[in-house]
Backbone:
């Protein structure tokens, strides 16, 4: 089957209105003539035999690595780490890639007689996964074999008993990671590389690290100099992680990295129109759009939330490669670009995007205003290589309801961050200096992170730091249809309609601006020339 | 001889000097009559001697500012040299004077009796003791003093001046002359002795009536409806207060009823009138002077209002008859008030009454027997009711009061309807609000809705007060009696130019168009402490001030209730969640049905007594496996409690800790349930169940810290840690926590249910409205999640 690459449409009089995501819903907006709309490439075909491909990858590693079976022996200590709930988005239909890969690894380990095996969810400072989430990621068979014996663990960045200090990089960065993983004879890392930012040394150096270690790259300075996060060579965040990863390798931690890529088949068939180009909608697409948007318009938010978060994506695996981290990751990144890359000619004055209901940090939860900012300014804004889609001093227009709502169980420190920190300052550097330590070391947040399902106390700061590059770059941020108080608290401007927002944007960028709309999801990455 | 000369060096005995008229009298005599000595009869306070009360309640009043300024540093010395305070009480026989007091009285030359209870709705027996018997008691004490003085070779007081009220003469249309009531053709000849006996008996009867079991049950029921399950002691205290209030109310109503039966609008003029009769009957000895008769003069002012010029224009003490009406009107609360626009309101400035009394004292008693002076304006210089209302309306239109949002309040235009119509309107409004209030208090409201209910209660109080004014004072605005002042003017005619300037009491000089808007109303507004400036208040608002006091570093301890104070949950919720955690779909439905079936009786029990409720409810945990509950409690916390928590509440706990305050959770919830909250507090005091091996017994290991026990537990805790409860803060949501809230210096009502909202409002307690996080749990039924497929062997997903 042939697939079409990404596409940049120029809006003319005959162009139908464009789909804008709007949180737990979507709508059509008519863009001014001459605007550009960037569409993702169509999904790459799935691997025909994923299990076969996994086996092949494990037996034929890249780089300076022996095949997995030859690294396994009886009596050894084996730790299998895997990406947490933040990947992929939306969560994929069963079986999850992690389940498929880990089952193969476990089979090989069993064949070799390995009996000291522990699974670790690589949470970093994310929330602990719930039982249903773990079951979904690993499958009941793996879950029931490990969990009851305490062999399925979740990384605890605040457990001094289970952290190992590896040392300092040349740049003076502390490296401290999960002790069980670091002291194993072999650390197998199972990754899902949804975007180019994921994977590589970031898997271990971030996913299994402590706050002490993370703060060296999760801070405003590093984030501002990551241009973008999706382009590892230009990303200070990645450079730091690479230094740490190499130090971990030098210290003798043996990592066998398994990376996988997904296609952009994001929505199940009943929502197929969401990943089609509007002028290609058929009658059924139009009817589904009309019916679903009417139904959603009247439904209470929590029902919409439940509905959308129950969506499991038909993502399919497009590649799997294993072996030494850097060699593997080079291939992975190329594969990601192959699926998601779109060439775009030149920057724009105004960049518009409709934000969907989900981001890496609100799976099965609420996209609170801080996450709205992070998804727009931290993630979507950074989906570029070379230079940002929007010019320096340009305007970013987001569409999202941005409700003043927080999940008290998952995001408790966000509530206080929004009430206390953002009420004082939206400057990442200032809040880093003034407030970060008190949130990071707060015993109540640490307690909730360790025993409940709460993101770490410092996490909302990281979300804001993700925005640091965009905040510095942009002339103005406007949110269409957002809760006005919440939008202002973020330091952004609220607008009730896209037309109003464009009027406001003209005050910043001049009377006849260029406009580009990022038609995301499905995810794409702009290679801006 | 001028007034000052005739009174110079005299000793004057005065009762009622802490009152409006008395204070002005004392000030005027001290300031204008050199060398006059004053002996003040002052009731000893609970913690203050008469001298202290004199200093605090008389001399501290702004009435003395002028004299203080004139005398400078000499004020204290001068005043204490000229004033002697003696302990006594006009409600006691012999005035309750001790030997020293009697000796002081015997050395006096003149006695002025101005003590009275002027309240129009005083309990009958109190009005009888003070207003009816007071003058006779003073007279008797003076007579005795004269006898004692005679034995010592002196003479004792040669003149008793009794202050009465013009309304004793008549409240009916027509002229009322300055004559003794025995000569007044309108006065019904009531037997004052019989009235005294019956008033005293009425109190005794009501006291026993109020102790009848049915009545006591009613009072207790009312207390419970106000406080809920606050605990036996608090309920008993409240019920006793309700009983006393009931007795008082009955006495007030009884007084009004008796007064009206005899043709008086209320108990005040009725008791004053009988007081005059009793006085004359016992000591004036009819109209003919007897050899040993007490020289007596009666002074009857009409409605006394603020000073025309002495000591300063507008001086007033206390909130009197007309002021509350004027202020209620200015606040837009009195849409109508009865009255005849052509009628005459008889008002007299206080300094004129004082001047008249001083002049009467200087003139001495009449030779031919008791004489009467009326001090009133209605005949000499009438103030027409319609004109007064116009002036008031005009003034408040030009100088409006402002509501709490800083907007001016526009005053209503009265249409002078009849009293009956206004009264009916107000009664209807009051009934409506009563109904609404009953409805609201029956609903399980909390937080802002309960606040609304409390506000409704306020409106209701306002409406009731308005109705009260109309009932009480309506008769006076419709009175059309003309109080003649011939004697007064005759006395005025005898004064020389100097005395006329210094002691002006000629009602003819009052310019009402000046007095009402320039002198009186500004003074009333100042005294009412109402908002007279527009815009948002620049001073820190009350909640902010209270919050700052609560979060001052010097506080010691912050005690928190849990359920509905920090988390929108209760013991039934948590039980339901835990008990249903491991049930299949079918069992679950049965469980919910059973719980719903029991709900009404559980609620009723909880309302009656929280302790009984908990111990009976916790029996449901009998046989529950401890280890499983402990593990499930963490899930409960993350899935049910945290999503229903109030983030602002948790933030407050942590703020207290940051400030170095000790934080304490006091809750009737079980220890296993609150275990995940341990790190939030320094300490937790909670309920715990007995254990039998690895199962719970369903009996509480010790008494749970709830209701009144909480206050004790809190006190013990503070004691053990060397903390002061005065410096501590307690946060709670329900009237059942009243004991704990009362125990600390800084009580805070959090999302109070309607009873506590009312209490907090009345007592001025700080109220916090803490919400669940928007986005928190919306689940209606607190039921544990269904087990995931394939689960069941273990719920432990954390090594």
Residues:
């Amino acid at each position: 089957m042939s697939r079409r690459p990404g596409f940049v449409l120029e809006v003319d009089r005959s162009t139908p209105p464009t789909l804008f995501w709007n949180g737990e819903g979507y709508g059509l907006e008519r863009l001014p003539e001459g605007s550009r709309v960037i569409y993702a490439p169509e999904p790459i075909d799935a691997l025909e035999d994923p299990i076969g491909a996994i086996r092949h990858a494990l037996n034929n590693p890249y780089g300076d690595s022996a095949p997995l079976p030859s690294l396994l022996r009886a009596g050894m200590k084996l730790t299998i780490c895997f990406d947490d709930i933040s990947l992929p988005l939306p969560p994929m239909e069963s079986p999850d890639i992690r389940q498929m890969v880990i089952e193969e690894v476990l089979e090989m380990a069993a064949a070799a007689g390995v009996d000291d095996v522990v699974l670790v969810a690589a949470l970093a400072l994310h929330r602990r996964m719930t039982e249903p989430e773990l079951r979904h990621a690993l499958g009941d068979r793996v879950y029931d074999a490990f969990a009851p014996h305490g062999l399925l663990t979740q990384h605890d960045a605040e457990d001094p008993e289970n952290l190992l200090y590896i040392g300092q990089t040349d740049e003076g960065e502390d490296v401290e990671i999960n002790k069980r993983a670091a002291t194993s004879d072999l650390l197998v890392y199972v990754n899902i590389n949804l975007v180019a930012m994921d994977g590589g040394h970031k898997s271990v150096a971030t996913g299994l690290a402590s706050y002490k270690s993370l703060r060296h790259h999760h801070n405003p300075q590093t984030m501002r100099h990551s241009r973008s996060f999706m382009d590892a060579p230009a990303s200070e965040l990645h450079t730091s992680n690479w230094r740490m990863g190499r130090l971990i390798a030098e210290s003798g931690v043996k990592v066998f990295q398994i990376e996988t890529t997904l296609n952009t088949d994001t929505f199940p068939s009943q929502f197929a129109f969401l990943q089609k180009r509007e002028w290609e909608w058929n009658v059924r697409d139009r009817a589904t759009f009309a019916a679903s948007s009417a139904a959603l318009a009247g439904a209470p938010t929590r029902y919409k939330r439940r509905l959308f978060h129950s969506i499991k994506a038909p993502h399919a695996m497009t590649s799997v490669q294993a072996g030494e981290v850097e060699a593997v990751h080079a291939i992975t990144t190329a594969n990601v670009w192959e699926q998601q890359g779109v060439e775009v000619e030149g920057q724009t004055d105004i960049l518009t995007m409709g934000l969907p209901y989900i981001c890496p940090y609100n799976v099965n939860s609420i996209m609170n205003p801080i996450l709205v900012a992070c998804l727009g300014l931290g993630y979507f804004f950074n989906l570029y290589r070379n230079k940002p889609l929007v010019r320096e001093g340009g305007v970013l227009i987001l569409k999202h309801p941005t409700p003043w709502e927080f999940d008290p169980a998952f995001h408790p420190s966000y509530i206080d961050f929004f009430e206390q920190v953002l009420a004082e300052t939206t400057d990442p550097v200032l809040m880093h200096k003034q407030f970060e330590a008190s949130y990071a070391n707060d015993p109540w947040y640490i307690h909730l992170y360790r025993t409940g399902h709460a993101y770490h106390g410092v996490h909302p700061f990281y979300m804001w730091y993700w925005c640091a590059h965009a905040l510095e770059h942009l002339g103005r941020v406007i949110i269409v249809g957002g809760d006005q108080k919440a939008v202002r608290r973020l330091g952004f401007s609220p607008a009730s309609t896209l037309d109003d927002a464009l009027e406001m944007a003209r005050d910043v960028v001049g009377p006849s601006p260029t406009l580009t709309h990022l038609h995301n999801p499905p995810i794409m990455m702009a290679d801006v020339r | 001889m001028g007034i000052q000369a005739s009174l110079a060096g005299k000793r004057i005995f005065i009762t009622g000097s802490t009152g409006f008229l008395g204070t002005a009298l004392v000030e005027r005599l001290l300031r204008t009559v050199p060398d006059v000595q004053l002996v003040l009869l002052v009731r000893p306070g609970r913690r203050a001697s008469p001298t202290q009360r004199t200093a605090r309640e008389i001399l501290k009043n702004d009435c003395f500012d002028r004299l203080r300024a004139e005398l400078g540093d000499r004020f204290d010395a001068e005043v204490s040299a000229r004033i002697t305070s003696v302990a006594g009480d006009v409600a006691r026989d012999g005035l309750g004077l001790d030997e020293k007091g009697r000796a002081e009285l015997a050395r006096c030359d003149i006695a002025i009796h101005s003590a009275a209870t002027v309240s129009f709705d005083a309990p009958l027996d109190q009005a009888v003791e003070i207003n009816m018997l007071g003058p006779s008691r003073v007279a008797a004490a003076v007579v005795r003093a004269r006898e004692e003085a005679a034995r010592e070779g002196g003479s004792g007081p040669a003149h008793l001046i009794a202050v009465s009220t013009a309304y004793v003469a008549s409240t009916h249309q027509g002229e009322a002359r300055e004559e003794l009531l025995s000569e007044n053709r309108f006065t019904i000849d009531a037997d004052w002795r019989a009235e005294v006996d019956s008033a005293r008996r009425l109190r005794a009867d009501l006291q026993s009536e109020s102790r009848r079991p049915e009545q006591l049950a009613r009072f207790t029921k009312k207390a419970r409806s106000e406080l809920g399950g606050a605990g036996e002691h608090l309920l008993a205290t409240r019920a006793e207060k309700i009983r006393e209030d009931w007795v008082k109310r009955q006495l007030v109503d009884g007084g009004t009823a008796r007064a009206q039966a005899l043709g008086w609008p209320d108990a005040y003029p009725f008791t004053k009138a009988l007081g005059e009769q009793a006085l004359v009957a016992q000591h004036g000895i009819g109209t003919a002077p007897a050899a040993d008769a007490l020289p007596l003069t009666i002074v009857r002012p009409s409605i006394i209002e603020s000073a025309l010029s002495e000591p300063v224009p507008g001086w007033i003490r206390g909130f009197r008859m007309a002021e509350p009406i004027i202020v209620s009107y200015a606040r837009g609360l009195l849409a109508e008030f009865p009255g005849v626009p052509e009628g005459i309101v008889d008002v007299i400035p206080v300094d004129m009454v004082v001047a008249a009394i001083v002049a009467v004292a200087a003139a001495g008693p009449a030779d031919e027997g008791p004489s009467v002076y009326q001090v009133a304006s209605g005949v000499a210089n009438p103030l027409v009711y319609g004109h007064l209302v116009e002036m008031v309306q005009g003034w408040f239109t030009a100088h409006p009061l402002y509501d709490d949002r800083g907007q001016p309040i526009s005053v209503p235009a009265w249409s002078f309807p009849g009293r009956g119509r206004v009264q009916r309107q107000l009664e209807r409004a009051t009934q409506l609000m009563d109904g609404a209030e009953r409805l609201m208090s029956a609903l399980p409201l909390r937080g802002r809705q309960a606040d609304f209910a409390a506000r409704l209660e306020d409106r209701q109080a306002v409406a009731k007060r308005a109705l009260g004014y109309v009932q009480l004072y309506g008769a006076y605005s419709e009175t059309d009696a003309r109080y003649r002042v011939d004697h007064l003017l005759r006395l005025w005619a005898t004064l020389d130019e100097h005395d006329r300037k210094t002691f002006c009491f000629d009602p003819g000089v009052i310019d009402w168009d000046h007095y009402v808007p320039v002198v009186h109303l500004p003074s009333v507004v100042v005294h009412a402490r109402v908002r007279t400036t527009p815009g948002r208040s620049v001073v820190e608002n009350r909640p902010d001030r209270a919050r700052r006091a609560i979060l001052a570093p010097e506080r010691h301890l912050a005690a928190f209730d849990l359920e509905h104070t920090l988390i929108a949950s209760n013991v039934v919720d948590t039980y339901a969640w835990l008990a249903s955690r491991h049930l299949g779909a079918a069992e679950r439905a049965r469980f919910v049905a059973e719980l719903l079936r029991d709900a009404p009786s559980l609620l009723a029990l909880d309302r009656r007594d929280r302790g009984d409720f908990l111990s009976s409810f916790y029996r449901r945990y009998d046989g529950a496996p401890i280890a499983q509950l402990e593990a499930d409690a963490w899930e409960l916390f993350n899935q049910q409690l945290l999503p229903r928590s109030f983030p602002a509440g948790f933030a407050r706990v942590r703020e207290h800790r940051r400030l170095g305050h000790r934080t304490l959770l006091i809750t009737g919830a079980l220890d296993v349930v609150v275990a995940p909250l341990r790190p939030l507090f320094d300490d937790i005091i909670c309920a715990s169940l007995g254990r039998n091996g690895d199962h719970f017994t369903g009996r509480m290991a010790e008494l749970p810290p709830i209701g009144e026990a909480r206050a004790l537990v809190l006190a013990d805790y503070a004691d053990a840690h060397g903390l002061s409860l005065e410096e501590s803060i307690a946060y709670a949501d329900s009237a059942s926590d009243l004991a704990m809230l009362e125990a600390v210096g800084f009580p805070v009502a959090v999302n109070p249910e309607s009873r506590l909202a009312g209490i907090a409002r009345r007592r001025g307690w700080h109220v916090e409205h803490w919400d669940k996080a928007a986005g928190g749990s919306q689940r209606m039924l607190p039921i544990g999640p269904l087990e995931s497929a394939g689960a069941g062997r273990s719920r432990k997903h954390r090594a």
Remarks:
- Chain A has two domains: 7-43+269-313+340-528, 50-184+197-262.
